[in-house]
Specification:
Layout: H1 2-71, H2 76-95
Helix pairs in contact: 1-2
């Protein structure tokens, strides 16, 4: 009988150790996952801020090129020309084309 009690105590101690080790590993994994989610949300927040900044720039440009000339009494054709210029600049900006023929101003190393 004494042997059975020793075996039960040994099995209990092993199980407690395994559960403690599993708890530590799960805590580490959850900590890493929380950090990765935080980094993802932080990057998403930064991109949303950049998007809002770009929208602000576009609306300022629209007001500058279209609304202000109309309020100053400039002719309708002139303001339509400004609107077309604004729209073409906006579309070229979306396509990633640079003003001036898309020439890259970086110096090539070689």
């Amino acid at each position: 009988m004494e042997q059975a009690a020793d075996i039960a105590t040994l099995v209990r101690d092993i199980l407690v150790s395994v559960y403690l080790l599993a708890g530590v590993l799960i805590t580490l994994v959850l900590g890493v996952m929380a950090f990765l989610v935080f980094k993802g949300v932080l990057g998403l927040t930064r991109k949303a801020g950049e998007t809002l900044e770009n929208v602000s720039k576009v609306s300022e440009a629209a007001v500058e090129h279209i609304v202000e000339p109309l309020s100053e009494g400039v002719s309708f054709s002139s303001s339509m020309g400004n609107a077309v210029g604004f729209a073409s600049g906006f579309v070229s900006g979306l396509m990633g084309k640079r003003p001036g023929g898309g020439k890259d101003k970086k110096k090539k190393k070689g």
